[in-house]
Design brief:
The protein is 12% helix and 58% strand. The chain is mostly beta strands. The protein has a 9-stranded antiparallel beta sheet.
Length: 155
């Protein structure tokens, strides 16, 4: 195959691709118990993996451990992220492993794209905060269990 044919094939393939690819995802929720915002970039290499994940959650419940009341989220806390068709899910987890009592923060986000805009997602999040007394991680006491609406957008 000649160099001109290769260049023509590359250019025709490139013109068939979307003009702008999704670069970031942004999620937000605000209700009487929790206020949060989350954002992440998509990996430049494959455009599927989330990188530079970050966010903040402000939990307004007085029973919430101080370590999680105003929690800054980072990439190490993002345990799972997946998009499948019109569904977007995130799983966030952290704990205060070295402190006593042992406490955990876990958030599951499940959303679906909206009918009128495939780049907007609406759904629910479930937040659990648990505490274990003594030197063992189990059994745990439920400090907070909260579920509410969340929306996300791909830009």
């Amino acid at each position: 195959m000649s160099v001109r044919a290769i260049i023509a094939a590359v250019l025709s393939t490139a013109s068939a691709m979307p003009a702008a690819a999704a670069e970031r995802i942004y999620c937000a929720a605000s209700d009487p118990m929790v206020k949060m915002s989350i954002e992440s970039a998509f990996a430049a290499r494959d455009g599927k993996r989330l990188v530079h994940f970050r966010g903040i959650t402000d939990i307004k419940d007085d029973k919430t451990p101080q370590a999680f009341a105003n929690l800054k989220l980072n990439s190490a806390m993002l345990k799972q992220a997946w998009m499948d068709g019109d569904e977007l899910r995130l799983q966030i987890y952290t704990d205060n492993r070295d402190a006593r009592p042992f406490q955990t923060f876990e958030m599951s986000i499940v959303t679906r794209s909206t009918a009128n805009n495939p780049d907007r997602f609406a759904g629910r999040y479930v937040l659990t905060v648990e505490s274990a007394h003594g030197k063992t991680k189990a059994p745990r006491d439920m400090v907070l269990l909260h579920e509410a609406a969340i929306s996300c957008e791909i830009k």
